[in-house]
């Protein structure tokens, strides 16, 4: 990374210079930057940015106008490239005039200074006259992000408006346009946009800084087409432009001419941007079909067999058609579920050939995404096949989420294989998978071939100790959760296991506040046993009998009544209310309903309800809920879930099955619980020689009780305790 500096400029004392990792800010001390106003953006190219910066700096200094610029070549390349968002692309220099008069003056001065320079179109701004680098808009100038979001524009009455609506120019309704006679197309105009006198743009289906992908109507052939755009002067890397890459797709498609790839219809330039027109293929991208092809869904036997037949045929198509492309000497490189389409008859199509290249030439761009490792040892055709397998893993399971923590791909492959064996995935597909991964040097296939032995207590306890040893190395556990009740759960678990935390007085303010007794605050006090439930019977009645109360609060009422030796009648009334208002059936199985979803989980679903019913039954020596518990248990026999957490994931299901085993002494529940733990354990990595459990839905390692490793430990700890008690 090289720094971008101001060359041959001597500053006087009234100039303040501030450098950050990305920007250099040049402030004129006697000039305050207003909160909002007309501002100027200047773009450039990698060849001319230094000249443009030097000229712009001289002009701003003479006029005493503050500005900022990107101060290193890495960030500059990013802002000039496809990586950049459409609302940020091209913005090299930003100028902050203090009023309209200075804005108009410096705009014209810069237009004369920068005449003839090439740059990138800034999509959120309007081009000034015929300049290729000079753009402007009205927007926020002197404000910081609030919770990661852009600050808002304000009118004279204090009403607020979005600073940027989208990647297009829009003058705010409360501001008078300074160039009212100029012509431009608003994003809200309904006029048809016709390109090349032939294509009427209907909709945008994908946006990037380097160009959009459109659905358009071809007037000549009277059919829908796909129009891909590559904007001038936008880079892919230092050596390749967006236009280079899209033209490469044109040549590749023209060479291949297969029935399972889009046909080329046309190519043209408009305003120096390049456009490629391709056949419109009716169907859905595979990344939009993940729910349909989820391998981990519990399906009846006949339905499972049909699923396996269907997905086997699709995977076979993938590799047969990839082989046909390879026979033409073409390698795809950019392979993902978003680059494949399935039509209504399950015919598979490959799309997006920008990075495809001839085996006889060098790779244009090495591509990567979140669904396969950044380093794949295989070359050429085998590299494409490995990437295709990772795309299949991403389509069928959530195992690619492990790449966030284990970038080698080993954990992903290991988990997918185990899932495939357990879900009775076709063995010939598994064998094909193993054959292709045989040459991946970072994998020891002998450790990947899954066996599913019965786990004994000693091994379970060994894994429990591994997890505990990791938890004991955590310096301080975070108590705050996504809600007050999650926070309470985290606090009680840390206290239960006597673990370190810096949040010792977390609930003092809440417990002392007598005026703000909202539903979560009251429940928190009762769960913490800082108040008697009898003082809040009217409040609890409102929770129990209201049709609008979220189930998660009724679950907490059951928890409180069990923990406080509460009234049996009130517990039964709460269960009755849940049966009436919070249960929905799917294929004859009752689930707790959450809006449009059905939940088997702990704090918002079947699992938590089952545990509280069992605790009540044991405490009061009653079997009145046994039939209800058994039918609820049909909804928690899932051994896979998107999350592995306790409160809203797999660990909660495992804990409920452990309680079911203890209560009914039925080995099937123990088998489910142990299998669930093993699946949670599969989502593990080693960090500093310590075993760490992770949650596929988390972006980083989480050690909390509600959503992290402490909750997963609580499950295995209680599983072993209940097994021993059952014995």
UniProtKB/TrEMBL annotation:
InterPro entries: Kinase-like_dom_sf (IPR011009), Prot_kinase_dom (IPR000719), RamC_N (IPR057929). Keywords: Kinase, Transferase. PROSITE patterns: PROTEIN_KINASE_DOM. Residues 199-492 form the Protein kinase domain. Signal peptide: none annotated. GO terms for molecular function: ATP binding; protein kinase activity. Pfam families: Pkinase, RamC_N. PANTHER family: OVARIAN-SPECIFIC SERINE/THREONINE-PROTEIN KINASE LOK-RELATED, SERINE_THREONINE-PROTEIN KINASE CHK2. This is Kinase.
């Amino acid at each position: 990374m090289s720094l971008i500096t101001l060359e041959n400029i001597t500053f006087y004392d009234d100039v303040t210079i501030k450098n950050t990792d990305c920007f250099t800010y040049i402030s004129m001390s006697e000039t305050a930057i207003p909160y909002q106003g007309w501002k100027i953006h200047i773009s450039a190219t990698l060849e001319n940015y230094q000249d443009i910066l030097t000229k712009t700096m001289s002009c701003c200094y003479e006029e005493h106008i503050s500005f900022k610029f990107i101060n290193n070549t890495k960030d500059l390349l990013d802002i000039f490239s496809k990586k950049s968002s459409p609302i940020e692309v091209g913005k090299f220099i930003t100028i902050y005039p203090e009023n309209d008069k200075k804005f108009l003056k410096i705009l014209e001065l810069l237009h004369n200074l920068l005449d003839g320079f090439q740059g990138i179109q800034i999509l959120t701004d309007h081009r000034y006259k015929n300049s290729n680098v000079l753009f402007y808009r009205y927007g926020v100038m002197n404000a910081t992000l609030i919770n990661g979001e852009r600050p808002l524009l304000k009118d004279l009455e204090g009403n607020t408006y979005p600073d940027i609506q989208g990647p297009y120019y829009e003058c705010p309704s409360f501001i008078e346009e300074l160039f009212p006679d100029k012509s431009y197309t608003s994003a809200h105009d309904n006029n048809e946009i016709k390109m090349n006198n032939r294509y009427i743009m209907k909709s945008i289906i994908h946006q990037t800084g380097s160009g959009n992908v459109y659905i358009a109507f071809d007037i000549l052939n009277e059919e829908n087409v796909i129009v891909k755009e590559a904007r001038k002067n936008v880079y892919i890397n230092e050596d390749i432009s967006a236009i280079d890459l899209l033209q490469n797709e044109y040549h590749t498609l023209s060479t291949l001419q297969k029935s399972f790839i889009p046909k080329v219809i046309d190519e043209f330039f408009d305003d120096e941007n390049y456009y490629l027109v391709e056949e419109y293929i009716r169907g859905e991208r595979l990344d939009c079909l993940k729910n349909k092809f989820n391998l981990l869904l519990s399906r009846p036997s006949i339905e499972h067999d049909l699923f396996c037949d269907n997905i086997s045929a699709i995977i076979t198509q993938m590799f047969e058609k990839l082989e046909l492309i390879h026979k033409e000497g073409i390698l795809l490189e950019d392979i993902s579920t978003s680059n494949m389409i399935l039509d209504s008859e399950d015919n598979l199509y490959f799309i997006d050939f920008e990075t495809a290249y001839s085996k006889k030439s060098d790779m244009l761009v090495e591509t990567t995404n979140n669904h396969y490792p950044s380093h794949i040892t295989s070359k050429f055709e085998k590299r494409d096949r490995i990437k295709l397998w990772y795309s299949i893993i991403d389509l069928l399971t959530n195992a690619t989420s492990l790449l966030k923590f284990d970038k080698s791909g080993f954990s992903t492959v290991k988990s997918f294989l185990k899932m495939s064996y357990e879900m009775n995935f076709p063995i010939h597909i598994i064998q094909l998978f193993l054959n292709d991964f045989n040459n991946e040097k970072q994998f020891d296939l002998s450790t990947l071939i899954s066996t599913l032995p019965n786990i004994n207590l000693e091994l379970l306890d060994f894994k429990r100790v591994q997890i505990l040893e990791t938890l004991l190395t955590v310096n301080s556990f975070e108590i705050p959760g996504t809600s007050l009740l999650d926070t309470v759960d985290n606090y009680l678990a840390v206290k239960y296991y006597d673990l370190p935390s810096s949040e010792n007085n977390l609930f003092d303010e809440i417990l002392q506040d007598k005026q703000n007794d909202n539903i979560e605050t009251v429940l928190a006090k009762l769960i913490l046993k800082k108040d008697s439930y009898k003082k809040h019977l009217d409040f609890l009645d409102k929770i129990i009998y209201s049709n609008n109360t979220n189930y998660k609060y009724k679950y907490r009422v059951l928890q409180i009544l069990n923990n406080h030796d509460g009234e049996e009648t009130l517990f039964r009334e709460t269960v009755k209310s849940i049966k009436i208002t919070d249960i929905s059936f799917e294929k004859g199985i009752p689930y707790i309903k959450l809006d449009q979803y059905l939940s088997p989980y702990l704090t918002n679903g079947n699992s938590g309800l089952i545990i509280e019913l069992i605790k009540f039954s044991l405490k009061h020596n009653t079997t009145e809920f046994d039939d209800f518990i058994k039918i609820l248990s049909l909804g928690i026999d899932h051994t896979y879930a998107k999350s592995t957490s306790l409160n809203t994931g797999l660990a909660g299901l495992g804990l409920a099955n452990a309680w079911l085993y203890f209560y009914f002494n039925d080995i099937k529940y123990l088998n489910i619980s142990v299998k669930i733990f093993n699946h949670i354990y599969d989502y593990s990595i080693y960090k500093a020689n310590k075993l760490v459990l992770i949650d596929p839905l988390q972006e980083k390692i989480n050690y909390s009780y509600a959503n992290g490793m402490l909750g997963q430990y609580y499950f295995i700890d209680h599983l072993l305790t209940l097994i021993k008690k059952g014995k």
